[in-house]
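Need the bound structure for zinc ion, inputs here:
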Amino acid sequence: MMGRTHLAFGVLAGLMFMPFYHHNLILYFVLVLIGALLPDIDHEGSKINSIFPITRWLARFFKHRGFFHSIFPPLIIFGALWYFNWGYIGIALGVGYLSHLFSDGLTKMGVNFLHPVANLHLAGFIETGKVAENVVFFAVIVLSIVKVVSLVV
Ligand SMILES: [Zn+2]
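Answer from helper R.:
Posting the output first, comments after.
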């Protein structure tokens, strides 16, 4: 999926989990959005690699939608941050990261959540960059707006 769709899913996931988050909410949303782009460091032309070119070399060693599209990186990141008492950072990154895996799971190519250990493949009907992705993108934006309104009113 395109970077903007992942950001939209990140916003929606961030809003859904916001009531359970008890630290700075601006930091929370910044971290959720970084987390929502992070799995695509395994793709050379991705948005995250154009923002932080330093991670681009990783794409040469890791298959796209392989390890970085499994549940293991967010678990490792969360575990490491939690160890240093930065679990609140890990949670926010994790919310974004998992929103990315879920949204890629809606695409035809799909995602193997347990790569490379086992096979737990989730796939849908959406083709990246095609009409269906745009429909999903706008639907997620609308849901996010509805969620914000429900939080404010
Ligand atoms: Zn991805």
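Comments: DSSP finds seven helices and two strands in the chain. The chain has one domain: 3-152.
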